[in-house]
Amino acid sequence: MSHQxxxxxxxxxxxxxxxxxxxxxxxxxxxAAGGICCSITHGALCPVDVVKTRVQLDPVKYxxxxxxxMRKVVAEEGAxxxxxxxxxxxxxxxxxxxxxxxxxxxxxxxAVSALGEEKAWxxxxxxxxxxxxxxxxxxxxxxxxxxxxxxxxxxxxxxxxGLVDGFGKMLKADGIGGFYAGFLxxxxxxxxxxxxxxxxxxxxxxxxYASMGKSPKELSDSANLGVSLTSxxxxxxxxxxxxxxxxxxxxxxxxxxxxxxxPMMARLINIAKEVGFVNLCTVGLLPRCVMIGTLTAGxxxxxxxxxxxxGASKFHFHDPNEKH
Length: 324
Description:
The chain is mainly α. It has 14 helices and no strands. It has helices at 8-13, 24-44, 46-57, 65-77, 86-115, 117-122, 124-155, 163-174, 176-179, 183-212, 221-253, 264-275, 277-282, 285-309. The radius of gyration is 21 Å and the shape is elongated.
C-alpha cells in the first residue's frame, strides 16, 4: 500500500484506479456525494416542504393546493417565510445523505462480497432493501433532532431565529427527549421510503439498461445521467405514496400539544384516530409526490455527477452469466 496523505480532503480528491476498487476512499466519496445531493435537493425544495407541512398541520386553513398555499404564506408572513427551517433542512439532510447514500453503497458491496456475484445478482432487490433499511436507520439517529427543530420552526414561525437558536430553545423546553419525540414516526416514514426509493430506482435503472442491451460503462455520462433521472422520478413517486401516512404523523407529533400528554405511542394513536386513515394517506399527497419525485430524480442525478467528478466509478450489480 502506498503512503499517501491520509487527510479526508486527500482521500476525497484522490484519483480512483482504472479498475473499480471499493475501499475506504470509495465509501468516503459516496458519502460526500450523498450528503451534497441530499442537501442541495432538500434545500431547493424547502418552500414546497414548508407548504406541505402547513397543509398537514392545518388542512382547514391551507386548503387551496400547493400554489394557493404558497400565496397564503407569502401574503400573511412574507416571502421569507417560505425559507423557514432552511438551515436545519440543508444541514440535517447533508448529514442524513452522508450516512444514507454512503451506507447503502457500503452495505450493498459488503453483501455482494459475502454472497458472491451470482447469488447477489439473483437477490439484488433484497440487497437493495436491506442495505437501504440499515443505512437509513443509522442516518435517522442524526436527522431526527434537526427535523424536530425544522418542523417546530415551520409550525410556529415565532419559535426560533435559526438552527442554533432552535436547538437551544427545544433543549431548554423539552430536554433531549424532545429532539427524539418523532423518532418512531421518522423511522416509520424514512425506512420504508428509502427501501422503496433504492429498490425501485435500482430495478428501474436495471430494466432500462437491459432494454438498451447495454451496461452503464458502455454508455456515455449523459446517457447514464438520463437513466438516473428517469428511474429517480419513478422511485420518488412510489416512495412518496408508501411513506406518506408516517410523514403526516411526523408533522403532527412535533406540533406542541398534539395527541395529548401521554407516552409517544399513545400520542401517535390519538393523532391517527383524530385525523383518520384516509386523511393520513391523502392529505398533502399531491405536493409530496411532486416534491419527492423531483427530489429523488435530482438526488440520483447529482449523486452520479458528483461521483464522476470525484473520479469514483459507481458500483452496479453485475450478471455473472452475461457474455462479454
